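Design a sequence for this backbone.
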């Protein structure tokens, strides 16, 4: 699909023959065209769907083109609007340009002139998309650093995310509760070519089947009691974007059949409708269940499992990468420290308990513990009594025996220092690579190294 084929145009004119002729011409040029034969119909469509360009007649019986333009700009500030007008109202069209119209086109419409004008507006839209996409890519590359840690499994996960984000295939994200499955999905979206479209997370465990069908597929007017007017479904609204089915293992079997059809046919049918509506979405799915095991039990369809599991990204539980806990603690301390509190660190015993706990809730549980501890503690150091009682089940902490020369448990700062210096050594002293691996900027790394040198520590 070319970039032009992704430009959605709303064509508005109360003369139906004009709409048909111009609409057919623009479709033949490769644009996605939706038509409206009244201002009111145009306003309804603008509220239901996203458009890149509006071409509207100025003078119409109910709602004029200026009002259509104002509503379009209020809903989508970056939308472009071309005003079509008779010669007698050219001054009004010029006024409309002063209010934000891209340009005006006099009647009778010359298709060659219209095409040139649409291409100019399209170039502006595509340039804006590319700038937005580049910004999102830069932020998303930074976003992979949100997976704090240098455990080999996490490093491999980061590499896989960056690679598979570029491929427009389905991905199944697996991992226990709290490991960051939605964070993985969002990063895939932000790094993907669809980053300028919508990211839509859907929690499969939060809706009944009836509600899910209505929400995903929408409904036709009067499809059922109290249905009201036509309503686009979530899948239709996310056209061109990325949809995450979170906790896909919770989806009822009968709903799985419907989702499988969407994946196979790339179309949907609204509730109460008969027309197949094409959709183009990339599907990501996440689960804390073993779907292969669920297939064996008969609670998950085997054909849907294979459709979803084109690529599998597994997030390891925190208990399997405890070497990352000091880094995560440091990150969450910085995230939740309050300006009016002087708490900066954990006592050796408190840190020991954090490092020796298994975290059934994974990184999310650790984050909650840090936030809670900071809220409870007014002292410079967080002590064991500031931690949840569950952490007392971890291995007991023993104070160092100075007489026997037993080394004391290291502080968070010492753990961080050892980690940074080990990375620096592993890349042959390359500070730029070290900063990139750790996820900080080079200036921050330089300051840390200078501090170590002042304390008599060799950083070479």
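Sequence:
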């Amino acid at each position: 699909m070319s970039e032009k084929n992704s430009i959605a145009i709303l064509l508005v004119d109360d003369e139906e023959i004009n709409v048909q002729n111009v609409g057919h011409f623009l479709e033949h040029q490769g644009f996605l065209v939706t038509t409206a034969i009244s201002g009111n119909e145009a306003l309804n469509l603008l509220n239901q769907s996203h458009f890149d360009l509006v071409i509207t007649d100025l003078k119409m019986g109910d709602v004029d083109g200026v009002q259509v333009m104002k509503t379009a700009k209020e809903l989508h500030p970056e939308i472009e609007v071309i005003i079509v007008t008779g010669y007698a109202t050219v001054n009004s069209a010029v006024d409309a340009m002063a209010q934000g119209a891209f340009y005006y086109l006099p009647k009778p419409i010359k298709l060659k002139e219209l095409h040139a004008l649409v291409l100019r507006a399209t170039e502006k839209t595509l340039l804006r998309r590319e700038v937005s996409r580049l910004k999102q890519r830069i932020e998303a590359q930074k976003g992979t650093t949100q997976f704090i840690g240098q455990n080999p499994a996490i490093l491999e996960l980061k590499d896989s995310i960056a690679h598979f984000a570029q491929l427009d295939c389905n991905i199944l994200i697996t991992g226990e509760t709290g490991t960051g499955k939605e964070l993985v999905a969002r990063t895939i979206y932000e790094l993907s070519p669809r980053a300028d479209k919508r990211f839509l997370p859907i929690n499969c465990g939060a809706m009944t089947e009836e509600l899910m069908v209505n929400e995903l597929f929408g409904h036709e007017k009067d499809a059922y009691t109290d249905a009201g007017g036509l309503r686009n479904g979530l899948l239709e609204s996310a056209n061109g974007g990325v949809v995450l089915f979170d906790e896909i293992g919770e989806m009822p079997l009968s709903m799985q059949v419907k989702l499988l059809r969407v994946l196979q046919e790339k179309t949907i049918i609204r509730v109460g409708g008969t027309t197949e509506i094409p959709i183009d979405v990339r599907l990501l799915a996440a689960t804390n269940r073993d779907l292969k095991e669920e297939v064996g039990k008969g609670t998950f369809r085997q054909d849907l499992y294979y459709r979803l599991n084109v690529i599998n990204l597994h997030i390891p539980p925190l208990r399997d990468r405890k070497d990352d806990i000091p880094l995560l603690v440091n990150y969450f301390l910085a995230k939740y420290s309050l300006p009016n509190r002087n708490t900066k660190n954990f006592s050796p015993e408190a840190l020991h308990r954090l490092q020796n706990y298994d975290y059934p809730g994974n990184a999310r549980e650790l984050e909650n513990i840090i936030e809670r501890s900071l809220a409870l503690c007014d002292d410079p150091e967080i002590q064991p009594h500031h931690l949840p009682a569950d952490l007392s089940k971890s291995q007991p902490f023993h104070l160092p025996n100075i007489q026997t020369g037993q080394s004391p448990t290291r502080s968070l700062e010492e753990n961080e220092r050892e980690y940074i210096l080990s990375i620096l050594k592993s890349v042959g002293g390359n500070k730029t690579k070290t900063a990139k691996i750790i996820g900080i900027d080079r200036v921050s790394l330089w300051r840390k190294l200078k501090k170590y040198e002042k304390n008599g520590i060799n950083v070479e």
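Residues 395-409 have pLDDT under 50 and may be disordered.
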